[in-house]
Amino acid sequence: MDKDKASEKLMKRVVKSANGCWEWQGGKSGGYGHIVFKGRETWLCHRLAWFLANGDIPKGKFVCHRCDNPSCCNPEHLFLGSSVENTTDRHDKRRDATGEQNGSSKLSDSQVDEIRKRYDGQYGRLKQLAQEYNVSSDQIRNIIRGRQRMSKVSEVNWTTCRLRRSGTSPTEHLGGKKSKTT
Ligand SMILES: [Zn+2]
After folding, report:
1. How many angstroms is it from 93 CA to the middle of ligand 1?
2. How many A from CA of 136 to the centre of ligand 1?
3. pLDDT tens for residues 128-155?
4. Where are the domains of the chain?
5. 13 C-beta neighbours (distance < 10 Å), count
6. What is the pTM of this model?
7. Which distant-in-sequence residues (6+ apart) come within 8 Å of 119 by Cβ?
8. Other beta carbons within 10 Å of 121
9. Which of 32, 18, 27 has its CA nearest to residue 62?
10. What is the CA(166)–ligand 1 centre distance, in A?
11. If DSSP codes are grouped into helix, strand and coil, which group holds residue 61?
């Protein structure tokens, strides 16, 4: 992706509010803004914003909001959370947004189905499928286990992430109220 163009496209539809949030004005799902490039590459805006500011999102990490504002794309309001701290409410918080918005999830829904059908449990098949679809073995494993794809999982987890909205001590925020950081 052309980062300059991506950044331009992102900022075009962002309105900076008084509290420092950069509010995405375009399409949203579940409160999270999304942005489409060339009609096929879809990103969630805050993930894109983090990526543009910091580089690749490490595998297994989720981009979370300190500000409790899912449509916010201000990199300074974003932080990386790990999956471990966010596994609790993945089931009831499922959101049905795109699964193709980041580098670790390049698979379409039909590819996911294909992989499930094609996996026959043979030794080495996992790796082979991973190579063939150009994703990690872990991702294939998750798909086979019928788990949500990384992107969907991460989508689910932001909500939990936001409860933590740390930067300081995690416990400080755990029982905390829902007040917005300004
Ligand atoms: Zn914000």
Report:
1. 21
2. 32
3. 888 888 888 888 888 888 754 444 444 4
4. 3-105+150-169, 106-148
5. 15
6. 0.48
7. 125, 126, 129, 140, 144
8. 7
9. 32
10. 14
11. strand
